[in-house]
Write a structure and sequence with these properties.
Chains A, B: It is found in: Cytoplasm. Chains A, B: Catalyzes the NADPH-dependent reduction of L-glutamate 5-phosphate into L-glutamate 5-semialdehyde and phosphate. The product spontaneously undergoes cyclization to form 1-pyrroline-5-carboxylate. Two copies of one chain form a homodimer. Chain A is of the alpha/beta class. Chain A contains 15 helices and 16 strands. The model of chain A has no long low-confidence stretch (mean pLDDT 95). Strand 16 of chain A pairs parallel with strand 13 of chain B, so a sheet runs across the interface.
């Protein structure tokens, strides 16, 4: 069968399944999630064997150590995926909730009920755990999924989907609820971009290049996720002990993630006091520090930060530092370079804290805390499908609730419009 | 200046203005809306003169009577636009509302606050009142607008924007909050499709062709509006008096609108009783009736309905009628042909009513009422910017609340992630 036909067939099966899944009760969905979790643990050997094929192929093709580590599955990692599904089963079911209902003067009762989106397409890179996490969250919210993982993880993903879709079906979910595109051709992604008749939304999870390609080429509505050029501003009235802890945490607790800090802005009044020690501490943690002219006047061996650095999501042990003369200048810099993911101010000044909260136009805006908290789990949403950096539909961490839409239901008694 | 540069300059001004407008208080915004309303009435002569130019040009170019009527402005119509702005000024301001705030175990207070989308692009056809309605709703929600009307109304739109943007500025809104693209070239629309750096959303208002072109070509996120192939199903247990009233209202009260009924589905058990009289009544109201084979066995001079008819939004005095043997068959037909706008069932049977509400996947699903109610005003949302037929962000009539997004605000006390 031709590639395009094959993908349309899968998408069409997902669409057919979504119409049944939308009306299944919570109990069946939760039983299926638990069965999927059990099946992952019971059939872990198959999954690890398939993963070993991917790892071998990756090594032969010179994948970096960090990519290989992201690709690697172990019994513990598979158990963690299973555990994730069990947690999702515990979440309350958003579907069917009537969010509001009002009686109009003409007697019509008009309400808004939460319903599934339908079919969710997900395009993602390397990590095979996304296969399980994404499928679990989508199913919980009554949606079916069409998954397209990276070619480097194709064997792992096939084995995983084989295991979980069998378990889901046996537990009562409609056949075809979890679809994995098996072709590793780039063309498969192009086909997904045009599946408007089958997909209700397309969510890319991965690097900036992947996300940009999806945004630019998909006619299916997209939720943009992830790119985080995050800033922390240390105000002149900051508690410098808090500032130190927050800076170290936001930059070094984990670097390859979208909510890690990439640029530090420091008010000139505290720069001389704050910078030498923090730069030393960052260097002790293997972080390369780049700075503007003023930073290098204080710590002379700091490398020069270029305009490109201000615009870069390093996702690495690299930090760009700029000294600013005011909160307004910090806000201007953020406005120019931020990707509107997460920004923080460290200050004890009440008015400046609120000004920062009001004026920064990002998905998550912090006072006196590390940007690393921007995460579905940390925000109390349970697991997340990604972090939206766009303004439509969902903004910030997206949990089960963000995988739904609403419809109006209207109870009449023969009303007609005048 | 080159077309593209000029449009980017306007979009960039709108973006700059949006950053100021987002933080203006309700009072300034409401004063501006009232000032815009007054200015429309005070300077009505200028507007009518400009409109006369468009009308003349339209007549010369052979615009149909109905298009000319949509284009025509009168003192009364301008006053109605002004009245619309005064009503929007009365709405409560959605901006700044904290929708939820929770304290996490680590002490972080995490809240969600309602904020403007930013800059809203609107591409619309013929009717110049959209210029005022759209600008008013967008400004109320703290957004600036980039408007692109049809070339047939260019003089009217220019005059209107000239009047309202001057009044808005004098009342304290940022300069450049209301932008009208003055080029009537098709290329201008193409440029809008790529303004991702400036526009947060693009809303097309018009016919199916316009909407499809925007969806297919825009990289700016789109909210699809409007196309309504709406169905009404008369169940075997319908109250046929209610059914009659609802059918006549949904088809003939106004035909050129998206929430008018286009296909009537009738249960075979009541077809012989119901159809002859209703078809006569429809014909008395100049409605052309088309029917499937079974309909034509009951009323022999009914024209044959083709597959294409089932899929057509007539927007005219035309109705396609099909006889079905069960609720399930009605649901299947709707599932196949509906554009997911508005559908209604007429029945006295409780279980069938709820089954229809549950299973029809449309923006608005009715029991025993006319689909003509799908409208922001009728639903109690105040005015509307359009009716979304997509599932992302907004579904059904979109009022001021749907022109907003949220951001997370986080109050910390030095928290770092473990």
């Amino acid at each position: 069968m031709e590639l395009k036909e094959k993908i349309i067939k899968q998408a069409s099966e997902a669409k057919g399944a979504s119409k049944k899944l939308a009306h299944l009760g919570s109990e069946v969905k939760n039983q299926a999630l638990l069965a999927m979790a059990d099946a992952l643990e019971e059939r872990v050997e198959e999954i690890l064997q398939a993963n070993e094929q991917d790892m071998e192929y990756g090594r032969e093709n010179g994948l970096s150590e960090s990519l290989l580590d992201r690709l690697l599955l172990t019994e513990a990692r598979v158990s963690k995926m299973a555990q994730g599904l069990r947690e999702v089963a515990q979440f309350s079911d958003p579907i069917g909730e009537v969010l509001e209902m009002k009686k109009r003067p003409n007697g019509l009762k008009i309400g808004k009920v939460q319903v599934p989106l339908g079919v969710i397409g997900i395009i993602y890179e390397a990590r095979p755990n996304v296969t399980v996490d994404a499928a679990g969250l989508c199913l919980k919210a009554g949606n079916t999924v069409v998954l397209r993982g990276s070619s480097s993880a194709i064997n792992s993903n096939k084995a995983i989907v084989n295991v979980i879709s069998r378990a889901a079906y046996d537990a009562g979910l409609p056949e075809g609820s979890i679809q994995l595109l098996e072709s590793t051709e780039r063309k498969a992604v192009q086909v997904m971009f045009e599946l408007n008749d089958y997909l209700d939304v397309l969510i890319p999870r991965g690097g900036a290049g992947l996300i940009q390609a999806v945004v630019n080429n998909s006619t299916v509505p997209v939720i943009e996720t992830g790119v985080g050029n995050c800033h922390t501003f240390i105000d002149s009235q900051a508690d410098l002990d808090k500032a130190e802890q927050i800076v170290i945490n936001a930059k070094t607790q984990r670097t390859g993630v979208c909510n890690a800090m990439e640029t530090l802005l420091v008010h000139e009044d505290v720069a001389e006091e704050f910078l030498p020690a923090i730069i030393e501490e960052l260097r002790e943690r293997d972080t390369l520090v780049k700075g503007d002219k003023k930073v290098r006047e204080i710590v002379s061996d700091v490398k020069e930060a270029t305009t490109e650095d201000w615009a870069t999501e390093f996702l690495d042990y690299i930090l760009a530092i700029k000294i600013v003369s005011s909160l307004d200048q910090a806000l201007e810099h953020i406005d120019e370079y931020s990707t509107s993911h997460s920004e923080a101010i460290v200050t004890e000044n009440y008015t400046k804290a609120h000004k920062f909260l009001d004026l920064v136009d990002s998905a998550a805006v912090y006072v006196n805390a590390s940007t690393r908290f921007t995460d579905g789990g940390q925000f109390g949403l349970g697991a997340e499908i990604g972090i939206s950096t766009q303004k439509l539909h969902a903004r910030g961490p997206m949990g089960v609730n963000q995988l739904t839409t609403t419809k109006f239901i209207i109870f009449g008694d023969g009303q007609i419009r005048q």
